């Protein structure tokens, strides 16, 4: 650090988006970090090799500067390496919460780290340790649970992503165990899941005790496990923007919790400290950096940011000691993870991307994430033999829908071509006895058809359409049509199982009377086979609700432990079934 100029130090604090990065920009501004924003890839269906080529090029640019400090490339791999074509897509966090299996989640972390490294990427903006207290929040599915204890237990993923911290490591020091591991990021600090009415990026109104006991445990747990970075939340706490909260960032996180990694802003986090955005930007930079933020996900207008920060330091409004603290933290993470020794991708890892082993792991996670909510006359597990089976609903044969947001694209997508995987429909076909059973898929069958065909039973797969962040805020939480009408039509005509594909509990009580079997499948990801494995009894149901399932939205917010608690299905609920042998 003694050898670094102010320009070089500021560069270490800057993270830019790959679309504005170029050899000139990397070199002229000594850029310390590059990211892929949601859906930002080097090309449609880009291969691991193409990702490596891009990341390595930025790295070579960084290494060609005077001091040759490597840049660190970051991406949102929030349910597997989810921006990359052919990656294994695991269930979103809400489903992992339902497994109550931290050891499984650790293995998922290790697999995700390998897939990221397969594309040359060493830094992931995960895990999201939000404690979602209101399912109307558009990011509810990114939260493991409404319960801080479940969220804390799931921070085991940090040890999967980064490796197990040595027992001698002092508390708060970041740890990354080498070339097959990645730097993780606990986000979004703090209280992102507690905003009023679940409005994204809004205000969390809560006592200090409430904030510390509900929203902080996930950070304490992550820090004990050596998490390398923490991302600040767009949201406010009692009216104050978290990006300017010196007491919680410098005081609590770096002081009380002794966090020694680096603190990063959210995307345009400094811009969003004002309304309208980017008004009085220089002042937001001043507040954010003096609050204790170390790296700034600028990510587009880097020139303005660098000029403004330079001014603020030259004018002594930001002390040099603060810049040094930031740079020391960024370099500490880069040194710890071995980026100086191994700045370039290890091309021998490419075959880990979407490997069979990882897909089997995702399938296991899907099986364990399913929550059985109703099972009249033990309808489930379903017979594989001798049945005429109707499969209905748009979500039955739509890989994009079953993966949800943050999959290939930021907002997710519809259809089966965006990446590689098994739809629930494919999975059903693979599982039933081909000799004696017949499966018919009708996306939206009409009543006449239903009555004339003599089906043994129906599997109706309905749910939410993909979304991410603010686009997912939803004040009514109804299943979009034709879902509800189809449940009614099919389930009144045929014995039926309804599989709900959603990022959160949705309105279901009005239809419950017609439904024989009800399964919450959350957003299972690419391995739809896991759904059929359990529906047909190869494995039993074991998942437990990681959230309270409300009766009607006017009850919200309603969380386990509340004084007035009258849910449709309580937190922790989940019926179980035993696996059956293959003869049924
Ligand atoms: C980016 C995302 C980012 C979002 C923030 C999008 O344009 O692609 O990465 O999370 O903006 O609003
Ligand atoms: C999201 C973050 C994400 C970042 C980068 C933001 O909009 O809030 O969770 O890591 O974009 O894509």
From TrEMBL:
UniProt keywords, alphabetically: Glycosidase, Hydrolase, Signal
Alphabetized GO MF terms: beta-glucosidase activity
Domain Glycoside hydrolase family 3 C-terminal positions: 370-576
GO terms under biological process: glucan catabolic process
Ranges where the Glycoside hydrolase family 3 N-terminal domain occurs: 5-333
EC number: 3.2.1.21
InterPro entries tied to this protein: Cellulose_Degrad_GH3, GH, Glyco_hydro_3_C, Glyco_hydro_3_C_sf, Glyco_hydro_3_N, Glyco_hydro_3_N_sf
Entry annotated with the keyword Signal: yes
Record Gene3D superfamilies: Glycoside hydrolase family 3 C-terminal domain, Glycoside hydrolase, family 3, N-terminal domain
Chemical reaction(s) catalysed: Hydrolysis of terminal, non-reducing beta-D-glucosyl residues with release of beta-D-glucose
Keyword Hydrolase appears in the UniProt entry: yes
Pfam families: Glyco_hydro_3, Glyco_hydro_3_C
Entry similarity comment: Belongs to the glycosyl hydrolase 3 family.
Official protein name in the record: beta-glucosidase
Organism: Linum tenue
């Amino acid at each position: 650090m003694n050898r670094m100029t102010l320009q070089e130090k500021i560069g270490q604090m800057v993270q830019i988006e790959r679309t504005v990065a170029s050899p000139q920009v990397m070199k002229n501004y000594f850029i310390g970090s590059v990211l892929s924003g949601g859906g930002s890839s080097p090309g449609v269906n880009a291969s691991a090799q193409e990702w490596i080529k891009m990341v390595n090029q930025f790295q070579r640019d960084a290494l060609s500067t005077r001091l040759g400090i490597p840049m660190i490339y970051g991406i949102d791999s929030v349910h597997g390496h989810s921006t990359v074509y052919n990656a294994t897509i695991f269930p979103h966090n809400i489903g992992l919460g339902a497994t109550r299996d931290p050891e499984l989640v650790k293995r998922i972390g290790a697999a995700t780290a390998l897939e990221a490294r397969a594309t040359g990427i060493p830094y992931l903006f995960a895990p999201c340790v939000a404690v979602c207290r209101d399912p109307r929040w558009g990011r509810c599915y990114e939260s493991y649970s409404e319960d801080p204890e479940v969220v804390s237990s799931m921070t085991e993923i940090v040890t999967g992503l980064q490796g197990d911290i040595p027992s001698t490591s002092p508390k708060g020091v970041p740890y990354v165990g080498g070339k097959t591991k990645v730097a993780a990021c606990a986000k979004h600090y703090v209280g992102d899941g507690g905003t009023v009415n679940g409005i994204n990026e809004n205000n969390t109104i809560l006592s200090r005790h409430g904030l510390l006991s509900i929203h902080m445990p996930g950070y304490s747990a992550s820090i004990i496990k050596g998490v390398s970075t923490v991302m600040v939340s767009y949201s406010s706490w009692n009216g104050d923007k978290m990006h300017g909260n010196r007491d919680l960032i410098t005081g609590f996180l770096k002081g009380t919790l002794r966090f020694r990694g680096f603190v990063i802003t959210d995307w345009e986090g400094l811009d969003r400290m004002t309304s309208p955005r980017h008004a009085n930007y220089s002042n937001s930079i001043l507040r954010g950096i003096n609050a204790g933020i170390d790296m700034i996900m600028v990510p587009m207008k880097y020139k303005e940011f660098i000029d403004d920060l330079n001014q603020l330091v030259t004018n002594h409004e930001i002390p040099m000691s603060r810049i040094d603290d930031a740079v020391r933290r960024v370099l500490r993470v880069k040194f710890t993870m071995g980026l100086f020794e191994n700045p370039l991708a290890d091309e021998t890892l490419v075959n880990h991307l979407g490997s069979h082993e990882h897909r089997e792991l995702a399938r296991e996670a899907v099986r364990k994430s399913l929550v059985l909510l109703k099972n009249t006359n033990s309808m489930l597990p379903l017979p594989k033999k001798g049945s005429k089976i109707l499969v209905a609903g748009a979500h039955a044969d739509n890989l994009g829908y079953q993966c949800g947001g943050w999959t290939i694209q930021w907002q997710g997508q519809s259809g089966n071509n965006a990446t590689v995987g098994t739809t629930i429909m494919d999975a059903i076909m693979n599982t039933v006895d081909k000799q004696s059973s017949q499966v018919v898929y009708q996306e939206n069958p009409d009543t006449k058809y239903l009555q004339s065909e003599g089906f043994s039973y129906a599997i109706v797969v309905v749910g939410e359409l993909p979304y991410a962040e603010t686009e997912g805020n939803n004040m009514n939480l109804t299943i979009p049509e034709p879902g509800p009408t189809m449940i009614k039509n099919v389930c009144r005509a045929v014995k039926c199982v309804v599989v709900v594909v959603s990022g959160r509990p949705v309105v279901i009580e009005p239809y419950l009377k017609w439904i024989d079997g009800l399964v919450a499948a959350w957003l299972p990801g690419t391995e739809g086979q896991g759904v059929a494995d359990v529906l047909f009894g190869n494995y039993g149901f074991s998942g437990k609700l990681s959230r309270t399932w409300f009766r009607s939205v006017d009850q919200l917010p309603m969380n386990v432990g509340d004084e007035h608690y009258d849910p449709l299905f309580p937190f922790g609920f989940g019926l179980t079934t035993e696996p059956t042998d293959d003869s049924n």
